[in-house]
Design goal:
This protein has 74 residues and is mainly α. It is built from 4 helices and no strands.
Length: 74
Amino acid sequence: MLSHYNLAFCIGYRDEAYFRVVLAGEFRNPLMRGFWAEVREFRHAVRPPGTPEGAFDALCEEAYQAGVPGGEET
């Protein structure tokens, strides 16, 4: 699912506000948070800020942090 959202974001399918809402919902799911906890450091290393992919990952990170119970990383 995340790949689908990433592509849609990168091609400008919808605006950033839309993806913020969608990702906030996705990252309430413990499975998605667990997945992101495993891949986030790698993705941040290979998808730098200033690129569409990096911008998408920044939105994911924001949603991940907001969705972690008690504000603690999983």
